[in-house]
TrEMBL record:
One of its GO terms (biological process) is cytochrome complex assembly. GO terms for cellular component: cell envelope. SUPFAM superfamilies: Thioredoxin-like. CDD domains: TlpA_like_family (cd02966). Residues 34-173 form the Thioredoxin domain. This is Thioredoxin domain-containing protein. The lineage of its organism: Bacteria, Candidatus Wildermuthiibacteriota. It is found in: Cell envelope. Keywords: Cytochrome c-type biogenesis, Disulfide bond, Redox-active center. The keyword Cell wall biogenesis/degradation does not apply. Pfam families: Redoxin. InterPro entries: Redoxin, Thioredoxin-like_sf, Thioredoxin_domain, Thioredoxin_ResA/DsbE_sf. GO terms for molecular function: oxidoreductase activity.
Amino acid sequence: MNKILAAIVGILIAGGVGWLVVSNRNAPEESRHQDQTERAPDFVLQDYNGRTVRRADFAGKSLVINSWAAWCPFCRKELVDFAAAQGEFGDRVTIIAVDRAEARDVAKKYTDELGVTEGMIFLLDLSDSFYQSIGGFSMPETIFVDKNGMIVDHKRGPMDIHEIRTKIKNLFAL
């Protein structure tokens, strides 16, 4: 009886491993270029001062939209790098950081501690609708949007300043 049970468990384990290998081949890459361009999702969110900000406010501009949260350890360094990139690229690109479902006080205290609050646009998404609209499943997640409002790259997971610069420069090449 123990041999039969061991054989069944072995088959289940082998099948599970095989399924994981096959399903990971079909999973989205950590960073992917869109084979088919997809329009960036619309949003209507509030900034730290309570002003309403819409994606439509940035029509005709290249955008980097990052989804982050204070509880995300990878977001800390990345937000600093995004603020540096915004300073480097100026008005050639607009970098927007969308906080995931945290109160204004939590988000602003975090960005104040990092010294980046004034370095770019921070928006609050109390319902977490933006993250859901981009099919988020990792943290952080960032979309790169061309001047026509199309997503040209979607990065799942953190980036360093070099990758951020490269992806922004790719926006200009389009």
